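Inputs:
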Amino acid sequence: MQNFEYCNRTKIIFGKGTENQIGDETAQYAKSGSPFRILLHHSGGSAVRSGLIDRVKESLKKAGLEWVELDGVQPNPRLSLVYKGIEIVKKEKLEFILAVGGGSVIDSAKAIAMGALFNGDVWDIYERKAAPTQALPVATIVTIPAAGSESSISSVITDERGPWKRGANYEYIRPVFSILNPELTYTLPPYQTACGIADMLAHIMERYFTQEPHVELTDELCEGAMRAIIRNARTVFSGGEKNYDARAEIMWAGALAHNNLLSTGRIGDWASHAIGHELSALFDLAHGASLSIIFPAWIKYNIKENTPRLARFAAKVWGVDGAFYDYEQAALEGVFRMENFFRSIGLPVKFADAKLDPGKISEMAKRAVNFGPVGNYQKLDEKAVEAIYRLAAE
Amino acid sequence: MQNFEYCNRTKIIFGKGTENQIGDETAQYAKSGSPFRILLHHSGGSAVRSGLIDRVKESLKKAGLEWVELDGVQPNPRLSLVYKGIEIVKKEKLEFILAVGGGSVIDSAKAIAMGALFNGDVWDIYERKAAPTQALPVATIVTIPAAGSESSISSVITDERGPWKRGANYEYIRPVFSILNPELTYTLPPYQTACGIADMLAHIMERYFTQEPHVELTDELCEGAMRAIIRNARTVFSGGEKNYDARAEIMWAGALAHNNLLSTGRIGDWASHAIGHELSALFDLAHGASLSIIFPAWIKYNIKENTPRLARFAAKVWGVDGAFYDYEQAALEGVFRMENFFRSIGLPVKFADAKLDPGKISEMAKRAVNFGPVGNYQKLDEKAVEAIYRLAAE
């Protein structure tokens, strides 16, 4: 087990009706004196139609808070809107950012929070040319369980001029609190629910696939969380769209999947995220769908690499029996079951399923290793990444 | 799943050699200007003999910190020493409390931290006659993985005038940071290692045994953590006293067991702790040993109460097969295996094993329900508690 530091300061407020606490919770961050002014950031879509934004405004108003609204966040959130948000925050002297939505809205809010206090171009932070030293406080009301951005230090933004999709990871942007009400997820389109499930499973798998030899407690926690996600996903996709408990298990798992508890003492892989990001950047494919395509191919590519760990994954997460007779066969059976699971909830597992053009593979492989080889399970260079794309395109 | 709030702000610094960071970490809490003065609290025993206290002092000195030392903490930490600590902190105007030791030292430090800023008798807090509104910051270097006090809101103190053993739970006393180096546990006497293992297992079992029907993610996390503890305990007790990884898994599990993540969405039981506390108060029995005696009896007493959950515990944690043919038989087989496990690491599971006097049972039962019935799995009155003591004395 590796030495580690772990601390997660995000306060999670979880359960039915909790979005109505938003005004009182936010007001606790106000400095006394002048009225507390916040940026209310959202997509302008379903959160408005469902009446959630109105309820949020009512709660803010009751608590005596003032806000400026910025909507229009799209999936794979755009840098241009981040720039606009930074301008508004500076001009209006806003002190706090409230994101209402999924990972895209939260990631956009985090970028604005950094940019508002950064002397320079915020994109330089994502390009790893600069590092921030502070950020405005961010809080969230989560409507899509997926990215785990509600208690993570991560933000992923797309510069549409490239297009480039880049991530930044800083403790400053961990939300101060996040409100998670599973009822808000009842009306998600099935495809978005499924993409969220792939995303949270991938967050755990990226941590699970490590070469660190003795990480038994976190292995157990990862496996248990993955089993709980898979079982409850089946419930939701078998007529349980409004099954509170199943939605709740998935929502809480989505936050835990990415809050770094599950990577304590180990070094995660993260190649599949980097490889998948290019599918999103070039084809505007949903993040979760990029992962359901890339992860099975990643395991197949790595089948000779620490095969016992891949077999353990198959046995403990996918219930593959006979794992101890032929590790490789067991591991491949695990991939087969994972692909079936993804398909059963409506996700693509091959290029063709999502109508992606395999003609772009060489270009994407080049772009994916822009900062050097990706992954830690084994380092993957351009050739290896290309091979993974080809396995996914077969 | 119940609504919940969850936040754990303790920064965990985990791994080899981390105790040498103590000076620099502590210095971050100093207000600029005057020298930062802290109370260095420990038992005066093994932490001194091993040279740990000297290393700590060297690190504090290097960071420019000043300290006053208060040693003498005993297992089942005493109120009289807490009073002494409060007096010293007030007189010397100390601003920060550093606990070096196990749960007893940390709990004593937390009591002093509350008492130093409390206008009245600190014991009133433990008697539930008063509530604190603040506390000095506490940090810890953990030498015994057991109580989980290093990232919990709990403190348990014994008033030797009764004797009464009482707990207090306040967010104010959650340590600001805790340093956990598994190497420091290599030289623990086997009995202390074993008591710690029983304590952390009990912390998880208290949370696991709930009547909340849909808590699947946390069930998985609890079961996985318990399996990891049991397997690594077997390694340590099979000649692995200095097996870093096994010690590390146990130490990290001990902190997670009691940081409240594992109780999110559910209401725990906690009867066994209350019932066990009387064994410690009357016979000065180690806390872990009181739990290895009481928990098997508690399950036997509850065998008709939500038997499927008891059977699941037997199946998932103790590997009992056939759990789905006869729940009650499976549950009892689980208890049998738990008792065998406790015995295998040198712990008592019956009154006679620890030479406890069954003549005190009626008195203890009366005392245990001093504040009313205990437990939530089912409420236990004086008669029920007495029956559990009798099952443990059989």
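Chain B has two domains: 11-183, 190-393. Flag for discussion at group meeting.
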